[in-house]
Design goal:
Oligomer: single chain
Strand content: under 5%
Order of helices and strands: HH
Number of helices: 2
Structural class: mainly alpha
Helix content: over 70%
C-alpha cells in the first residue's frame, strides 16, 4: 500500500513541476511572440518605405512573419489548454487525497 501511495505522491509532484514549466512556456509564447512580431513588422515597414513602398514581392516576408506569429500563438494556446486540463486533474487528485486522508483519520479515531 505504501508503494502505491508513494507513487501517487511522486506523480502529483511531477504534475506540479510540469504545470510550473507550462506556465513559463505559455507566458513566453503569448507575450514575446506579439512583441517580436511588432518589432519585425515595424522594421520591415521602415525598410520597405525607404525602398519605395510595398510591391507584391515585398509583402511575402510580412506573410511569413504573420504565419510564424500564428504558429507561436497556437502553440501557446495549446499549452494553455493542456495546463488547464492538468490543473483540473491535479485538483481531482488533491480532492481524492483529502477524502482518503479524512477517511483514514476517522477510521483511526473510531
Amino acid at each position: 500500500m505504501e508503494n502505491i501511495t508513494d507513487a501517487t505522491f511522486e506523480l502529483i509532484e511531477r504534475l506540479e513541476t510540469k504545470t510550473r514549466l507550462l506556465k513559463i512556456v505559455i507566458i513566453g509564447c503569448l507575450t514575446l511572440a506579439p512583441i517580436g512580431l511588432g518589432a519585425d513588422v515595424y522594421s520591415f515597414m521602415v525598410f520597405s518605405h525607404s525602398k519605395g513602398g510595398l510591391s507584391g514581392q515585398q509583402i511575402v516576408p510580412i506573410v511569413f512573419v504573420f504565419i510564424t506569429l500564428i504558429l507561436i500563438l497556437s502553440f501557446g494556446i495549446d499549452r494553455y489548454i493542456k495546463l488547464k486540463k492538468c490543473n483540473r486533474n491535479l485538483q481531482q487528485l488533491e480532492f481524492l487525497e483529502e477524502t482518503i486522508y479524512k477517511e483514514v483519520l476517522q477510521a483511526k479515531i473510531i
